[in-house]
Design a protein that fits this description.
Layout (H helix, E strand, L loop, with lengths): L2 H132 L7 H22 L1 H12 L6
Helix pairs in contact: 1-2
Length: about 180
C-alpha cells in the first residue's frame, strides 16, 4: 500500500466519518422535528377532541333548548287560545247581558208609556167629568171662578207631570203607596 492509497483511504475514511456525522446530525434533527411535530399533532388532536366534545355538548344543549322552546310555544299557544276563548265568551255574555238589559229597559219604558196613557185617559175622563159637573156653575160669582181657576192650574200641573215619565214614576210611587218596579 502506498502513500496515495493510504492517504486516499484516510480521506475516504474522514469523508465517510464526516458523512456519517452529518447523517447522524441530520437524523437527530429529523427525530427532534418528528418529536416536535408529534407533540404538536397530539396537542392539536387534544384540542380537536375538546372542540368536538364542546360542540356535542352545545348541540345537545341546543336540541334541549329547541325542545323546550317548542314546548313553551305550545303552552303559550294553548294559553293564548284559552284566553281568547274566555274573552270571546265574556264578550258574548256581556252582549247577551246588555241585550237583556236593553230589553228590560224597553219593557219598563213600555210599562211607563202604558201607565202614562192610562193616566192621560183618566185625566181626560176627569176633565170631561169636571167640565160636565161644573157646567151648571158657569155663571157663579167671582169666588167660584177663583176656585175653578185654581183647579185649572191643578189640571195644568197634573198634565205637566204626566208628560214627564220620571216625574210621573215618582208621583205614582208617592200616591199609590206601592213603589213602581225599576
Amino acid at each position: 500500500m502506498n502513500f496515495w492509497e493510504v492517504t486516499l483511504k484516510q480521506k475516504e475514511l474522514s469523508h465517510m466519518q464526516a458523512l456519517a456525522e452529518e447523517w447522524r446530525r441530520r437524523d437527530h434533527q429529523r427525530e427532534a422535528l418528528i418529536k416536535k411535530k408529534e407533540m404538536e399533532y397530539n396537542l392539536l388532536e387534544e384540542q380537536l377532541q375538546k372542540t368536538l366534545s364542546d360542540l356535542e355538548k352545545r348541540e345537545k344543549a341546543l336540541a334541549h333548548a329547541e325542545t323546550e322552546t317548542q314546548r313553551l310555544q305550545r303552552e303559550l299557544r294553548a294559553e293564548h287560545e284559552f284566553s281568547l276563548r274566555e274573552l270571546q265568551d265574556g264578550g258574548r255574555r256581556l252582549r247577551e247581558d246588555c241585550a237583556h238589559q236593553v230589553e228590560l229597559e224597553r219593557s219598563k219604558v213600555r210599562q211607563i208609556e202604558d201607565l202614562l196613557a192610562q193616566q192621560r185617559q183618566q185625566v181626560n175622563t176627569a176633565d170631561a167629568s169636571c167640565d160636565r159637573d161644573l157646567w151648571p156653575f158657569k155663571g157663579t160669582s167671582r169666588r167660584g171662578l177663583v176656585t175653578l181657576g185654581s183647579r185649572g192650574h191643578e189640571v195644568t200641573r197634573l198634565m205637566s207631570i204626566l208628560s214627564n215619565p220620571l216625574v210621573l214614576k215618582r208621583g205614582v210611587k208617592r200616591f199609590s203607596g206601592n213603589p213602581v218596579r225599576s
